[in-house]
Amino acid sequence: MSNWSDYPILLAVAETGSLTAAGRKLSMSQPTVGRRIRALEDHFGTPLLKKENGELVPTSFGHSMLDHIRRMQDEASAIDRSSATLEDSLAGVVRLSATEGIGTAWLPAVLQTFRASHPDILIDMGVGFKNYNLAQREADIAVRWMGPGDQNSLIGRKVATATFGLFASETYLQQKGAPQSLDDLKNHDGVMATIMDDKQLWIMDNNHQPHYLPGRVTFRTNSIWAFDEAIANGYGIGALPVFGGCAPGRDGNIRRVLPNVSQQEDIFLVAHEDLRRSARIRAVFDFLVEAFAQDAAYFLNGGTSVFDNVASGLSCGGVNADNPDHVHAPGPRSLDVAE
After folding, report:
1. 54, 238, 243, 264: which has the fewest C-beta neighbours closer than 10 Å?
2. What's the per-residue H, E or C state across 293-332?
3. HSE-up of 205 (CA within 13 Å, CB side)?
4. Which of 85, 101, 121 is the C-terminal boundary of a domain?
5. Considering only 118-127, 183-192, 206-215, 241-250, which range has the smallest mean pLDDT?
6. How many domains does the chain have?
């Protein structure tokens, strides 16, 4: 019989296309991955992978094996979820995933309120733009932008709508001046964040394509932290949420430009349908639904969070807040320019 632990290695190679990338994903060395794949091929007496266009892809037999491996993985994950649903105790770890910004500034402060009534529920938070697999229990609850995901087993709830605008530092504006129209952006420098499957953080047209791009991009990064710092340090204009807590110095150094230009993105709270029967996970989920509802105006228009008394860093002081009377175009990713 082959080693059961070799099967996830084959799946990782098939999904990443190389032994090296699979090793990084599994925290294994490339030689170890190669040796384990060869052991599987020796066991079955046939190749499982072949080289195609510079990548390793499954052979016909490899494809049939992967179907079985994925079903095995789903069944193993179902066992984990079943054990979690039996937990009636309001104690233990709840794994959250969220992006930088909400995950680094808003959630830690807000969850302090939750801890006051649930001191034995411990938070383990993964921050970044990786889509954690909830079916495989990489996370119990995820905060996601634009949609809950396409897995049938997920329960997603829209909890807020966030408004984005264009921002630049006072230093940059003193040197370059402020754009007076969207067309003026071609004469300005831009700061870009590459997020969520290589999407660019910028204002989008209705076809989900970047619109009115700056003349040149002087700073590009996959980190929202570095992105915010680059805007604050005068690299150029970037798209930021109007709610506070993400950009350093936004109160004073960073100013909104073209304030009548805005874009909206929906925020969803997502959990696996099985795990919502876990008492501690359901408690966190329900609390966050209510917390987002209480702060709906903060995400939509900026200003001050209702949780501002919990911790510092949740207020823009209204300096760059959106106009509450500003009527936004319906639906996500629709650019709105107020008259």
Report:
1. 54
2. HHCHHHHHHCCECCCCCCCCCCECCCCCCCCCCCCCCCCC
3. 7
4. 85
5. 241-250
6. 3
Type of residue numbered 158: K
Strand 199-200 and strand 238-241: pairing? unpaired
- Indicate whether 142 and 279 sit together in one domain: yes
pLDDT tens-place string over residues 193-223: 988 767 888 988 877 788 899 999 999 998 8
What's the domain range around 12?
6-85
**What is the spatial distance between Cα 213 and Cα 195, in angstroms, rounded to a whole number?**
17
pTM of the model: 0.68
271: in domain: yes
Q: Mean of the per-residue pLDDT values for the chain?
A: 81
Q: Name the burial class of residue 60, with classes exposed (0-12), middle (13-18) and buried (19+) by CB atoms within 10 angstroms of its CB.
A: exposed
Q: What angle do CA 269, 273, 279 make, to 5 degrees?
A: 85
Q: Are residues 248 and 170 in the same domain?
A: yes
HEC string of 100-159?
Answer: CCHHHHHHHHHHHHHHHHCCCEEEEEEECCCCCCCCCCCCCEEEEECCCCCCCCEEEEEE
Are 100 and 226 in the same domain? no
Given a contact cutoff of 8 angstroms between Cβ atoms, the answer to whether 105 and 313 are in contact is: yes
Judged by phi (left if over 0) then psi (alpha if -120 to 50, else beta), residue 17 lies in left
Residues 180 and 248 in one domain: yes
Say if residue 156 is in the same domain as residue 270. yes
- Which range among 15-19, 30-34, 60-64, 325-329 shows the weakest confidence by mean pLDDT? 325-329
**pLDDT (average), residues 326-334:** 40
Is the pLDDT at 42 greater than 90, yes or no?
no
* Beta-strand pair 121-127/92-98: parallel
Place of tokens 């969070």: 305
Give yes or no: residues 113 and 144 share one domain: yes
User: How many residues are recorded in the chain?
Assistant: 339
